[in-house]
Amino acid sequence: MKFYDFSAKNMDGQDVNMVEYKGKVVLVVNTASKCGLTPQFTGLEELYEEYKEKDFEILGFPCNQFAKQDAGSNEEINNFCLINYGVSFTMFEKIDVNGQNAHPLYKYLKSEAKGLISKEIKWNFTKFLIDSDGNVIKRYGPTTTPLSIKGDIEELLK
């Protein structure tokens, strides 16, 4: 399996095949609207604005599995991200990232880049960097700020 073998529903309920991102560097992030790390949306949007013209994408996946910090509907989450942070990168419907009902994409990402102690996602804003060939290159913990990974993104964009 490769990153490109998966699909997910965007906030409009449309299926998006990851193959649409072939040839692009992609950052996949599980997000939450009511988390201490929610301000990372600002840094994510800054990264997206800086590199989107250079074949870079950010894919946001809301998740309510951590202290119920994204309990709203998909529409409420989407509006929150747009109004409060000006998010213009692609946001997907809310998913589970751990457990029996974890989205297949996240099962794959976790198997390709395990965390420090286990493969499970520990909290909101865990990030996965994928190269332009669909390989999972690196996993970043929740407290790793988006702007601190600019160097890794730039290296892949060369």
Describe the structure.
This protein has 158 residues and is an alpha/beta fold. The chain has helices at residues 40-51, 74-85, 104-112, 150-157; strands at residues 7-9, 15-17, 25-31, 56-62, 90-91, 127-130, 136-140. Helices cover 26% and strands 20% of the residues. It has four helices and seven strands; from the N terminus they run E-E-E-H-E-H-E-H-E-E-H. The strands form two sheets. A five-stranded mixed β-sheet has the order 5-4-3-6-7.
Number of contiguous helices: 4
Q: Roughly how many Å is the radius of gyration? A: 14 Å
In whole angstroms, the N-to-C terminal distance is 25 Å
Query: How is the biggest beta sheet arranged?
Result: 5 strands, mixed
Classify the oligomer: single chain
Give the rounded overall mean pLDDT: 93
Query: H/E series, N to C?
Result: EEEHEHEHEEH
Beta-strand content:
15-25%
Helix and strand content put the structural class at alpha/beta
Quantity of strands, as a count: 7
Across the major sheet, the strand order is 5-4-3-6-7
Q: What characteristic shape results from the CA principal axes?
A: globular
Could you list the spans in which at least 5 consecutive residues all have pLDDT below 50? none
Helix content: 25-40%
